[in-house]
Amino acid sequence: MRKTTLTYKIASEPDELGQIYKLNYQTFVEEIPQHGQNENGHLVDKFDDENTYIIAKNESEVVGMVAVRANRPFSLDQKVNDLDRYMPPLANPCEVRLLSVKKEFRSTRVFYQLIDSLVNYCLKMDYNLVLISGTDRQIRLYKRMGFESFGPMVGTEEAMFQPMYLTKEKFETTTKAFKKMMIQKSRPTKKMNFLPGPVPVHEKVENAFGKESISHRSNDFIEEMKEVRLKLCKLVNANNVQIVIGTGTLANDLISAQLTKIPGKGLILSNGEFGHRLIDHAERFGVDFYTIEKSWNEKITRGEIDDVLKQHPDITWLWTVHCETSTGYLYDITKIQQITKKHNVKLCVDACSSVGVVPVNFQDVYLASTVSGKGLSSYPGLAIVFHQEPISPDKQIPRYLDLGQYAMTNSIPYTHSSNLVAALHEAVKRVDLDYRGYIAAVVRRKLKNAGLEILGDEDYSPGIITIPVPDFISSRDVGDQMKANGMIISYESDYLLKRNWVQLALMGNMTMTEIEKAFTIIKQFISQVVEQV
């Protein structure tokens, strides 16, 4: 759906009338074969001079209309013998006709707002009875609105109509009902979220987050923090973990601060945006290090890492991302662990986009970072750092970045969020790595069958699928179109726009039904693009 700026009014301008005649033709000639075709594609109603047209406009475009008229004889007078005998006593009737909404606006609030405007107009004019010829395709809808059927069906075999009326008493009921409907229509439709964060969360996670806040010094909170930390350590086979209010960036700053305490130099691997950010983290803390930097998505081999460690025995630590979120590239941490153990080098891992998505084992990892709002499928706001060895406070490190402060106080040195911790606790219980892999395999297969290029293969992360968009299409246009159709994908980051890429992140809580709906949208978009090429 394109961007809309809707207004409702009584038609008064020549351009509005011209658009009314065109919409009239599209609906009652082309869609409902009630009238014969003509060359100019306009249908002027026989009562046009007496009609009052209530219209819906999207900026200057007429997208919906309905006509009301009180002069007798009505259109129904010519179709129903002795029309008055069907009407209640003291009726002051009007006839409503030519209700039409453009197809692309039928799933919006246009219909309801037109009816609401119509009801208000009729009440203002003191009409106490509305007559319509209801198309046989929408009789159930009209009855829900309060219309009552009377007399026989009229029209032709191709276009049948049921005479119906709505009384003033039902007017008022209808007004209330439609206002409720319009409120519902005005509520934002829940969009399908394929972002790498924030991610869609399970209802139980949402409920846990919504519980009343409790003090971070209370026994209940201390106990819950203890339990969620134990579950996190078990999930990744780690010895220790600290949970901090913050993001993945903070988690990596906490690691950077610890790197300043390790004698010797480091080695940082980079073949994408987030590897480059690790370099930036380390530079800001003034630590000494070497790098292996490759082009985006280019593999860094085991042999290359081994050679650098052989050439530089002063390297004491190695830092790498696990999943390079900018591409979906997945480093083989197991093989890297073998190399670092061989050279007695401490391994540090940015696992923000891999914990909860793929199996990870931090038994031989010195430090590792992750977050609550990605693969763990909870709300953003908690930075998580795993550490192999006990860590003590260090006064040379700023208090908020001192991992030892958190270790000494069971992750609660300062004010914490019971809501975020409760949500994370519930989310960790629901981690299902097998389902992640299954969903990713289905998505990859469907994308390839649709003829789309995908970075990497099944060895890449199941949590991030990167699609290079053909040069003749803008990735921003693709993302905007998906968003307009209820599907939010990752495309607005500078590094994606620069390369004309879009991404589908499969990190949050999602069902196969949502996946199928998403592919319906994608197929529709592909079809539109093919037609334009």
TrEMBL record:
Residues 6-169 form the N-acetyltransferase domain. Pfam families: Aminotran_5 (PF00266), FeeM (PF21926). Its cofactor is pyridoxal 5'-phosphate. PROSITE patterns: GNAT. Coiled coil: none annotated. Keywords: Aminotransferase, Pyridoxal phosphate, Transferase. This is Aspartate aminotransferase-like enzyme/N-acyl-L-homoserine lactone synthetase. It comes from Rossellomorea pakistanensis.
